[in-house]
Amino acid sequence: MNGDATDLIPVRALNQVSYCPRLYYLEYVESVMPINEHVEDGVFQHRRVNDEDLAHRTRKEGEALRTRSVALSSERLGITGKLDLLEEKGGATRPVESKRSAAPKDAEGNPSSWENDAIQVCAQGLLVEENLGVEVPSGILYYMGSKARVEVRFDESLRSKTLQAIALIRELAARAVAPEPLPAELRHRCFGCSLAPVCLPEETLYLIHPPEDAAPATAGPAAASPPETTPPSPTALTRVTASTDEKAVLYLHEPGSHVGRRSSHLVVTLQGQEINRVPIASIRQVVVFGNVQVSTQALHTLAEAEVGVSYMTGYGTFIASLLAPPAKNVALRAGQYRVFSDPERALALARAVVAAKIANQRTLLMRSLRGKSDAPAGPGDDPKADGPPDRVRGSDEPAAREMAELLARVPHAPDPGVLLGLEGQAAALYFANFGRMLKARTPGAAFDFTVRNRRPPRDPVNVLLSFAYALLTKDCFSAACAVGFDPYQGFYHTGRHGRPSLALDLMEEFRPVIADSVVLSLINNGMLAESDFLTWRDACQLTDDGRAAFFKAYEQRKATEVTHPVFGYRMSYGRMIEVQARMLAAHVRGELPHYVGFTVR
């Protein structure tokens, strides 16, 4: 093999490609390598093996000579690796590989080995044979979970499988699209896999090969059936990822406060007095508003822990995010530029998100106005009956009917200009009725809503809407970066320099169900009062207490679990944002034929 023609393959990659070819592809071709508790525990368990002070030092331990962290390579085989341990005993030289898991049992109940582990240690044996010129008949797998030491014989069958794994890696490295997830009979391997939240095996296979009785998952019509018809519920998939993130978002908005680091905590002080102390391990994101100072040491620690820091103005306008280094999967960003620059494909994506947005706006409108006494009688109601109709459905609202008509036209929009017009008409109908979704109040009260205004918002309701959209932009920006996208290259919101276009694209379908819903909850449940707002000239903004109440309601909404309309299992809205971003990435990579927008029933 010509070593100059291709990079050497890490021996550990042979283990992963034998376990799951898609796992190998995501980690080594697309450079996606998330960390979970199993990976962290493996690093901890290997702390002695990886001790640099013991590397390449041969020590006599009983009757054996043992050398730790032995680095070997082979241009002929095209592989390289670092052996946990090289053991010389009784005239035989054998590699020893440590695994954090427990050993499987054979038919007689004796400790055995997993095939992918055997292939990895066999590759190490091949490296030892070539570099030291000795025959290596077997190797040792030490399973820490059961403290079992298992001998693996390097017979011709295992050596052949090892060479086949090397060839498979060469084949996968040349592919432009990741292989499909494992089939159903091997799906148990996905549980506990650190790549499961990225791979989304069940969801990806469902969209590639949907069951015959499932509703058609099309990117365009947002349901080819009439808008009043609820698509059949899909068979619930086996969820292999967490439904939500248990870590918290830390909001820093006290003017003049300072954030520093002490040991493993963030410490917030105001005028020299400590007002809050938070373990960094419990935080997934930090959001800084206005005049809050964060020390360099704190930012450094947050960056190392891969905790994103988002900066907002005091009015809630998103400025920027400090994130860990960009994801290494350059191929995804190259595909993003190619797909989003294709007018036809960009238009198809734009139709999907606009259809989902209008559908969700219409659903929220129907839910909020269902049973309103001022709603017109529906087709089944008696217009001559005394009092309000008994059976008033939100879909009988004129605005809901007109939005349904606009929704039916979205899949046939011939260009972005027409699509933008349809979206604008739907938004006009939606916001013309938004005030009716608020609980009845005395005319002229603080929470009257007549028209959408911004930059700056001039009344409390518009302040809340703008604030919610800014936070949602921040979350979609973070999701796009976490997946590996360029957040500034969008397919619908294009043409303005410096705008996070993709974040704005991703947030469209979530505006009604997250942002608008939070605003309605805060007002209708009496969680905010007129005293929670400050008005100066034509500008209005939240007070510190008002912002604190808003943050609490916003995070509660993101933590709310909802059933995915396609996959059939429940997850939080916050998790849903990342799932949709990953589905978009799968479409860009060519794994999925189309992107399906998220809609609520």
Our Rg estimate from Cα atoms comes to 29 Å
- Tell me the helix content: 25-40%
CATH class of the largest domain: Mainly Alpha
* Biggest sheet layout: 7 strands, mixed
Q: What count of helical segments does DSSP give? A: 18
Structural class: alpha/beta
Strand content: 15-25%
Can you say what the CATH homologous superfamily of the largest domain is?
Answer: CRISPR-associated endonuclease Cas1, C-terminal domain
Instruction: Output mean pLDDT.
Output: 80
Q: Write down the domain tally.
A: 3
- So what's the overall shape? elongated
Could you outline the blueprint of secondary structure elements for this entry?
Layout: E1 9-10, H1 11-19, H2 21-29, H3 37-45, E2 58-61, E3 64-74, E4 79-89, E5 92-99, H4 115-132, E6 138-143, E7 148-153, H5 156-173, H6 196-199, H7 201-208, E8 248-252, E9 258-262, E10 265-270, E11 273-279, E12 283-289, E13 293-294, H8 296-304, E14 308-312, E15 318-322, H9 330-340, H10 343-369, H11 398-409, H12 416-432, H13 434-437, H14 460-483, H15 501-507, H16 511-524, E16 533-536, E17 539-542, H17 544-559, E18 561-563, E19 570-572, H18 573-589
Parallel strand pairs: 1-4, 5-6, 8-12, 9-13, 12-14
Antiparallel strand pairs: 2-3, 3-4, 4-5, 6-7, 9-10, 10-11, 14-15, 16-17, 18-19
Helix pairs in contact: 1-2, 1-4, 1-5, 2-5, 4-5, 10-11, 10-12, 10-16, 11-12, 14-15, 14-16, 14-18, 16-17
